[in-house]
Amino acid sequence: MTWQPLTAADLPLLAGWLRDPQVARWWNHEYTAEAVERDFGGSVRGEEPGEDLVVSLDGLAVGLLQRSVISDYPGEVAEFAAIVDVPDGAVELDYLIGDPSLRGRGLGPRIIAMAVERTWDDHPAASAVLVAVVAANVASWRALEKAGLRRIAEGAMEPDNPVDDPLHYIYRVDRPVRPARA
């Protein structure tokens, strides 16, 4: 499993994923070419501090991983901080599996675990990874738990989809302490 930064050539694929009813249920995102360009074009052009990464399995694009330092987005800091302490350098994740045939097969926990492990190298100042997930999205929070994150709090946050209750679970994993070399 690998990932690479989202490119302009990936935007039609992403639009298709966002159009899928299971993805649309939780992401609730417009999927027209104009909307996808508007909302993901900044990442493609390097104008966003966060990362949009296309996840591939055996060379086939299967999903999207978003990763960002929470403090780069003041609105995110405020939402998290209303519920939990946000450690300096904390990183947040979001993800989707675009290929319907791969959902429910353990790919989500693998993507999350890979993202967490790579975060420690890619973001040396990251002390923790935090993920907020709407409480109704059972598959997502189960994937987080299978990937080793633990639920540390719950509280109201603005849901992506207005049909959802604001209740979110907050998951966290801390940077592992590695023994000093002798």
From TrEMBL:
InterPro entries according to UniProt: Acyl_CoA_acyltransferase, Acyltransferase_MbtK/IucB-like, GNAT_dom
Pathway participation: Siderophore biosynthesis; mycobactin biosynthesis
Protein's organism: Nakamurella flavida
UniProt superkingdom: Bacteria
Annotated N-acetyltransferase domain residues: 1-176
GO molecular function, one term: acyltransferase activity, transferring groups other than amino-acyl groups
SMART domains: AlcB
Gene Ontology biological process terms, A to Z: siderophore biosynthetic process
SUPFAM superfamilies (alphabetical): Acyl-CoA N-acyltransferases (Nat)
Protein name: Lysine N-acyltransferase MbtK
One Pfam family, short name: Acetyltransf_8
Annotated function: Acyltransferase required for the direct transfer of medium- to long-chain fatty acyl moieties from a carrier protein (MbtL) on to the epsilon-amino group of lysine residue in the mycobactin core.
